[in-house]
């Protein structure tokens, strides 16, 4: 249980740290300065099939925190590190699956929501009254990175990540909107990217478009491996499949090459993010065989507390087929032949594509 002696922003920040959040800050600004940029991004179609981002009510809500919590006075914004050893799965071993770092341990939505609830209860005890509040972690229509920059947690890198000069970018962002009148923290104003363009050059699909005239970093999400392997529910465009390599869930390349992660991303002390044995560089063949034996429901049961549940059984199996095709080894043929008879048409099509690559009947 977290104890907050008396109610002010500094003590609330200290309480957030005591709960394991490495960084925390306070925002009092209600209206988003970035909403026009967000709308332009949607209008350009750079969000692809992520329809939840373009729902008109949700777009409006991103513009003002008042629309989410009418009694809003301040938000506590926290960062929770998931940095792991670098590099984790050897990318040089194409027979093994790479799952993005953020998704190897327990589901951060659950971990952070639990802690924010604890923080909220601590604030209520200190206030001696019910506190109107709402917690978010990648779970609702608020611009979390804008709030985190305002709370002083980092700057927007050219890879679009929020980066802190002493912590890198391997951290989640959580937000607790409250009706408590805390004083705001100093926003983060500097841009530490300078002339560096490592992430732009390293992105295998050309998803990072650099900064626009306003200085905002722009991503074409429809090309991002994270989108293709997690958010996209249909077929992965054939021309992008080879660039995915052995990344079967998410992608960390533009963070791995960032000097701020090379220098400062110390492994997290959070036990909840320790890798699940099945998700720490499993063999592609073993993972495919396991998924083929599972129903969609069994998959959800098995991975209920893991971010990989978002891809569903068919989506993850689709990705593993692509990675097996990219590996190109004949020993993958038996498992791919089984996948080519799967009940899911999506899986069957990607397995056929992979078999075509291995047998040399397909060039892409
Ligand atoms: C949709 C989404 C995605 C999409 C699109 C990503 C993108 N870059 O937009 C996809 C599926 C590709 C994705 C991938 C990933 N995601 Co994601 N994703 C989100 C989500 C739900 C919304 C982001 C969004 O609105 N994008 C639209 C763009 C336009 O908004 P934005 O990224 O916030 O960018 C801002 C700037 O452009 C800014 N801006 C405007 N004008 C100006 C002017 C100046 C001068 C400046 C500096 C900035 C600026 O305006 C925008 C709004 O604030 C957020 C959670 C949330 N609710 O915010 C998580 C979130 C951004 N994702 C997160 C993570 C961890 C990831 C991955 C690392 C997962 C992985 N390993 O695969 C990758 C990283 C890929 C990358 N390089 O971004 C974290 C990022 C934490 C951090 N340190 O930055 C978030 C915050 C979730 C969380 N709560 O922790 N994601
Ligand atoms: S996450 Fe991967 S694919 Fe997406 S922008 Fe970064 S490097 Fe490119
Ligand atoms: S790799 Fe370089 S350009 Fe890209 S975010 Fe990091 S510092 Fe900025």
What is the oligomer described by this structure?
single chain
| Main sheet specs | 4 strands, antiparallel
In the predicted model, the low-confidence regions spanning at least 5 consecutive residues are none
Annotation, overall tally of beta strands: 10
Care to describe what's here?
The chain has 15 helices and ten strands. Helix content is 37%, strand content 11%. It is globular and about 65 Å long. It is an alpha+beta fold and 364 residues long. It has helices spanning 9-18, 35-43, 56-63, 108-127, 144-150, 198-202, 225-231, 241-244, 253-256, 259-264, 284-293, 296-302, 312-327, 333-339, 345-359; strands spanning 23-27, 74-81, 98-99, 133-136, 155-156, 162-163, 171-178, 208-211, 217-219, 247-249. The structure holds cobalamin (B12) and iron/sulfur cluster (2 copies). Residues 159, 203, 205, 207-208, 219, 224-226, 251, 253-254 line the site of one iron/sulfur cluster.
Keywords:
single chain; 364 residues; globular; alpha+beta; four-stranded antiparallel beta sheet; two-stranded parallel sheet; binds cobalamin
Write the layout of secondary structure elements.
Elements lengths: L8 H10 L4 E5 L7 H9 L12 H8 L10 E8 L16 E2 L8 H20 L5 E4 L7 H7 L4 E2 L5 E2 L7 E8 L19 H5 L5 E4 L5 E3 L5 H7 L9 H4 L2 E3 L3 H4 L2 H6 L19 H10 L2 H7 L9 H16 L5 H7 L5 H15 L5
Parallel strand pairs: 3-10
Antiparallel strand pairs: 1-2, 2-7, 4-7, 5-6, 8-9
Helix pairs in contact: 11-13, 11-14, 13-15, 14-15
Bound molecules: cobalamin (B12) and iron/sulfur cluster (2 copies).
């Amino acid at each position: 249980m977290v104890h907050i002696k008396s109610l002010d922003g500094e003590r609330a920040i200290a309480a957030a740290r005591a709960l394991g959040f490495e960084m925390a800050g306070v925002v009092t600004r209600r209206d988003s300065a970035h909403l026009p940029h967000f709308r332009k991004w949607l209008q350009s179609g750079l969000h692809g099939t992520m329809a939840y981002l373009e729902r008109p009510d949700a777009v409006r809500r991103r513009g003002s925190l008042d629309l989410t919590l009418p009694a809003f006075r301040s938000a506590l914004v926290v960062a929770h590190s998931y940095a792991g050893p670098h590099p984790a799965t050897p990318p040089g071993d194409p027979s093994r699956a790479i799952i993005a770092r953020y998704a190897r341990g327990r589901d951060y939505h659950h971990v952070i929501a639990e802690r924010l609830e604890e923080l909220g209860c601590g604030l209520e005890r200190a206030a001696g009254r019910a506190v109107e509040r709402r917690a978010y972690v990648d779970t609702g229509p608020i611009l979390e990175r804008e709030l985190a920059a305002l709370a002083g947690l980092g700057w927007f890198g050219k890879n679009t990540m929020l980066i802190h000069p002493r912590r890198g970018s391997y951290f989640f962002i959580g937000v607790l909107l409250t009706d408590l009148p805390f004083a705001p923290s100093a926003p983060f104003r500097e841009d530490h990217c300078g002339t560096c363009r490592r992430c732009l050059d390293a992105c295998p699909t050309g998803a990072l478009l650099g900064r626009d005239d306003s200085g905002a970093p722009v991503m074409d999400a429809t090309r991002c491996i994270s989108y293709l392997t997690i958010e996209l529910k249909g077929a992965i465009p054939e021309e992008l499949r080879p660039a995915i390599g052995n990344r079967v869930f998410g992608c960390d390349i533009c963070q791995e090459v960032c000097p701020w992660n090379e220098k400062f991303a110390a492994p997290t002390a959070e036990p909840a993010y320790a890798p699940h044995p099945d998700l720490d560089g499993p063999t592609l063949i073993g993972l495919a065989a396991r998924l083929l034996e599972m129903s969609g429901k069994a998959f959800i049961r098995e991975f209920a507390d893991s971010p990989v549940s978002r891809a569903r059984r068919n989506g993850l199996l689709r990705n593993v087929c692509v990675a097996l095709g990219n590996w190109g080894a004949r020993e993958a043929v038996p498992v791919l032949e089984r996948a080519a008879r799967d009940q899911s048409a999506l899986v069957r099509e990607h397995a056929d594509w992979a078999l075509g690559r291995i047998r040399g009947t397909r060039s892409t």
